[in-house]
Design brief:
alpha+beta; Cytidine Deaminase, domain 2; 5-stranded mixed sheet
């Protein structure tokens, strides 16, 4: 199963009673293991949690810490980019040259490197004097 297939499959599990906008994400870690996540909304936080954050949390829960590749998919007219918070989370666990693919259910896709997705990302090096 490809990362795109995994992201499409987990997207169906999204809990989106307010927006009806399902998003799925799948990532491959440095060892080749695949982790998935979908967006989840609730009354207190109707904008919900993001699919990318869910996949990263699953990776961390398994003890892994390095994203090698990431795919995000939604049923939208154009590929959906990760939100700002997820861009920072991705940058925490992926090198600047890691490829992020954003895709639609219709097959349109756009790829970007993490460095292009979040230029000037805040990182551990910023805290070297702490």
């Amino acid at each position: 199963m490809t990362l795109l297939d995994a992201a499409r499959a987990v997207r169906e599990n999204a809990y989106v009673p307010y927006s009806n906008f399902k998003v799925g994400a799948a990532l491959r870690d440095a060892s080749g293991a695949v982790f998935t996540g979908c967006n989840v909304e609730n009354v207190a936080y109707p904008e919900g949690t993001c699919a990318e954050a869910g996949a990263i949390a699953a990776m961390c829960a398994a003890g892994a810490r390095e994203i090698a590749e990431l795919v995000v998919v939604a049923d939208s007219p154009m590929p959906v980019t990760p939100c700002g918070g997820c861009r920072q989370k991705i940058a925490e666990f992926a090198g600047p040259d890691v490829v992020v693919t954003m895709a639609t259910m219709d097959g349109e896709a756009r790829t970007m490197r993490v460095a292009d997705l979040l230029p000037g990302a805040f990182g551990a090096a910023h805290m070297d004097r702490s």
